[in-house]
Design brief:
single chain; 4 helices; 134 residues; elongated; alpha+beta; four-stranded antiparallel sheet
Length: 134
């Protein structure tokens, strides 16, 4: 377990989706526009804890929403940049009232023959979204 300040605060659950793999039309170069590429994502969603103990499935954030957000963005069509994919996915997740923040990363495992992958990571929070929209 890492020393994550949001977890240390005791106010949030951190829900993690690790190494989710999908195919996406992503890339700014012409050869990347021809076929979908393998894309790997790691997503952590910080969900506000309620004051009462959690005992029922209906009382927690539905994990499927993370995959649904990724796949909805992928289905929108070609995306030039991994950064755009991350922003759009995080924005979808931040629409849920209980989600306070999203840490998200993507990797293109087939982009470079001499590297395991090339990727981007970012952190988005509702506080940053409010600031951006004012």
């Amino acid at each position: 377990m890492d020393l994550d300040p949001m977890l240390i605060s005791g106010k949030y659950w951190k829900i993690k989706l690790n190494r989710y793999e999908t195919k996406a039309r992503i890339g700014a170069y012409q050869h990347e526009r021809l076929l979908p590429q393998r894309l790997r994502l790691n997503v952590s969603v910080y969900v506000e804890k309620g004051s009462a103990p959690v005992n029922e499935l209906s009382e927690v954030f539905n994990y499927d929403r993370i995959i649904e957000a990724i796949e909805a963005v992928v289905l929108e069509g070609h995306i030039d940049l991994q950064e755009t994919l991350l922003e759009r996915t995080a924005k979808r997740l931040l629409k849920y009232p209980e989600v306070a923040a999203v840490q998200i990363g993507s990797e293109k495992p087939d982009a470079y023959s001499k590297a395991e992958s090339i990727g981007v990571e970012a952190f988005f929070s509702k506080d940053k979204e409010r600031t951006k929209n004012q």
